[in-house]
Amino acid sequence: MNKKTTVNRWSTASLPYLFITPALLMIASFLFYPIANVFYYSFQTYNMSKPYYNGFAGLQNFVKVFTDDPMFYSSLWISVKWVFVQVCLQLVFGLLVALLLNQSFRVRWLFRTAAFLPWAISGVIASLIWSNMLNENIGIINHLLMAAGLIHNKIAWTANVHTVFGSVVIAEFWRGLPFFSITLLASLQTIPGELYESAKVDGAGRWKSFTHVTLPYLKNTIILTTLLRTAWEFNNIDLIFNLTGGGPAHATTTLTLYVAQLAVKSGDFGYGSAITVVTFCLLLIFSVVYLKISRFGKDDSQ
Amino acid sequence: MSKLRFVGERTLTLYVPLCVCTLFILFPIYWTLSTSLKRETDIYTAPFKLLPSPATFSNFAFAWESVGFSTFFKNSIIVASATVVCVLVISLLSGYALSRFSFKGKAAFMILLLCTQFIPAAMLIIPLFLIFKSMSLISSPLSLVITYTTIQLPFNTILMSGFIANVPIQLEEAAMIDGCSRFKSILYVVLPVLMPGIIAVGAFTFIGAWNEFLFALMFISNNAHFTIPVGLSFMQGEYKINYGASAAGSMIALLPTVLLFSYVQKYLVQGMSAGAVKG
Fold first, then answer.
1. Which one of A27, A103, A276 has the shortest CB-CB distance to B122?
2. B148/B261 Cα distance (integer angstroms)
3. Do A16 and B127 touch (CB under 8 A)?
4. Which domain of life is it from (chain A) (predicted)?
5. Which among A2, A222, B221, B238 is least buried, having the fewest CB atoms inside 10 angstroms?
């Protein structure tokens, strides 16, 4: 009898709330409260190096962002370029790898492990790996290109304004490829085989069944993953920070890197927060427009 | 004849692209390993030799002892393991609530979890720094454990609830009919069946915490508390010329995650299709 009441006590409606409380508390105090703070700081003069001037600043920070900061525009442009090139490359090649790995062949697990491996590698390590390969004097890339007769002089890939962007793009592409390979492969495996069979019966070739069965089925996954990836790549900092430090001549300073530099180097938290708020709003607008245009969820294929 | 054509087509459309991809992905890792085993002089005088000859472990010894990787390694293990424990406990609780109960506000909680995925980490640098400063936790590993746990919770809760949903509810009901309390039945019946999911979530969390750089760079100023990514980053600045040692450092940093990763990668695709990124 006694036992039964204990069971009952724990089966009451409060149990699920008890279970989600720790998660809620953590998210509220260390994600949502800090973000509310960012909005608060953005209206303040808050500089670690000039504490006497700190106080309410009204819209002053935001006016400065839009009218008096060429670095904002240049780093925004670099961020947009970075995200666009990165997400396109990763999506196209990730889909290709996923399609390859979705076929059955011997030792598939070996190829899968290899293809997913960079997922386990941090941006810092990736930057070390690629700075070794891209090095002007000892890097193997210069060596290979010269041996193939494609270039005649050694190129300082990460120190040259013309090649530095391409260099970081390749390094991040290498590391970011598995994200799409993994998620798209997971999605491919949920496509029922009958769909392909009936497409075959209807006389669809390989390309037709790809565009009429595979792609529509993957649509929602692709929309969601590209959106997530856009946000992540926009905020990506460890690879660029370590490979180029944003240079040369700010050629690889993305908006995120610019904010981090503002906060760390000059301790200008108020202005840094204002840029963060602007960035956040831009990402939000982009996400809403993107979801509207792509008609996310308004597809009956899934 | 048609068999031959099939083999030819298969080679062209499957094996050739597969090998090109694999080469592109594996070669940089191989090259770093090879660099880490070369003598300093060989890196400069004969930099393009594919195999290190003679191979030496002096770069590893230098990174481990002189640069301080023994300390960084220990710090990273502590931070990552503590994060794994916190994330596992909390995500088990909330994942269980999500997959086993229907309650008011469940949909709102799910949306909340999804929303967090769009919060840029960069947005958190400044306020979290100030919060931890007011708590005197700057340069303490605890600040990292708290940050990593919070950031990793939402995604892993969703993942975990997917894994729990796959455990037949009848198992629990049977145990409870036999007189087990709910907690006992979770502990002795659900957890053992859930092991693959727990391993997967734990491994992803570990890899994430092990690799995190931005917050570790911001919060940790004392090099006795550096984690591996921060140590590597400073090495790149300080020992820019020493490619052998930094390659050795990379290999040391890679080892745990790559081992873990090759072990759990088979759960990865399953876990993803269990509901996380299905859309």
1. A276
2. 19
3. no
4. Bacteria
5. A2
| Residues ≥6 apart with Cβ < 8 Å to A222 | A91, A184
Mutate to test the interface with B, among A6, A92, A125 (most CBs of B within 10 A): A125
The answer, for A252 touching chain B at a CB cutoff of 8 Å, is no
Residue type, B31: W
∠ CA A226-A231-A232 to the nearest 5 degrees? 95
Helix ranges restricted to H, A148-268: 164-188, 193-201, 206-209, 215-235, 238-243, 255-265
Contact at 8 Å (CB) between B278 and B254? no
Q: Do A143 and B47 touch (CB under 8 A)?
A: yes
User: What is the predicted ipTM?
Assistant: 0.85
The two three-digit tokens of residue B224, written as one number:
């006795």
pTM, two decimals, is 0.86
pLDDT, averaged in runs of 10, over chain B (279 residues): 75 87 93 90 77 86 90 96 97 94 91 82 85 91 96 91 88 86 85 88 92 91 92 77 87 91 74 50
Question: Which residues are registered as beta bridge partners of A268?
Answer: A47
